[in-house]
Every structure is written in C-alpha cells, then in structure tokens.
Amino acid sequence: MNTSQRFLTLLSLLLVTACLPPQAQDRHGAAADLAVISLHIGDHPLTAEVADTAPLRAQGLMFRESLPPDHGMLFVWEQPEPVAMWMLNTPLPLSVAFIDEQGRILNIARMQPHSRTLHHAAGPTRYALEMQQGWFEDRGIQSGDQVQGLPGH
C-alpha cells in the first residue's frame, strides 16, 4: 500500500468512527457500558441500568425506543436532595418512583413522552427508578413500599 492509499484508509476509518454514536448500544438502545443491577420491590424482581454520575443522569433514557420487560433505569445521587425529572427527548411513556435514602418509595409519577413537565419528588431523594409506564401500578407498588438491592444501601 502506498502512502496515499494508507492515508485514504486511515481517513475513511476516522470518518466512520466519527459517525458512530457516543456509546455502543444494544437492540433496546441500552448503553453497553452502564452497570446493571437486580432489585426487588416486594415479590417483584427487576433489572436496572445504573445512572450514577451527572452525565449519565442527564442522558437517562433519552432516545430509547423500547425497554425489555421488567427493565428500567436507576438514578443515584451521592446524597439525598430535591429532585425533579422530565421527559425531554424520551419517546417512551415512563413512570418514576422517587426513593429516599432508606430505600422507601416517596411517590410515583406518570410521565408522558417528550414532555417538559417537571415531576417532583415528595421529599429528599437518593434514588429514582424509571420503568415503563404502569409497571408500578400493575404490580400494586405504591408510596411507602421498600426497594431492596439499592447500591450503597
């Protein structure tokens, strides 16, 4: 290969790489590098991707087209704080459970796709769990229920 061909090959590889999404994603749009944990609420098991940094919390489930059954995203803050969430660039209808430092659900909000409406936690929140809309109510999960398996808990 002469110098021109090597240069064109390298340039082509760089252009292809630049066009790739910032994170590899599976068929549901899940980021391949997110930690995944198992949680339980009563007798109900679930799997959650963990968003435990400011950039991961900001990205959340944006642009996701689907979630596998009983899968969601757990948002984690270092300390309990006032939390509000919205659905900008999120095409899935979701429900969010705001969870205190002891793992107790404070309140659950139903969120509509692409909405800028803010959904506020009822108190200082250490965790927020987003699931497909209706997941909590379909299982009889409500405020006061305990979430088991939370990180740092």
From TrEMBL:
Signal peptide start and end residues: 1-24
Signal keyword on record: yes
Annotated InterPro entries: DUF192, Saro_0823-like_sf
Pfam families associated with the record: DUF192
Keywords, alphabetical: Signal
Gene3D superfamilies referenced in this protein's UniProt entry, alphabetically: Protein of unknown function DUF192
Name this protein carries in UniProt: DUF192 domain-containing protein
Provenance organism: Ectothiorhodospira magna
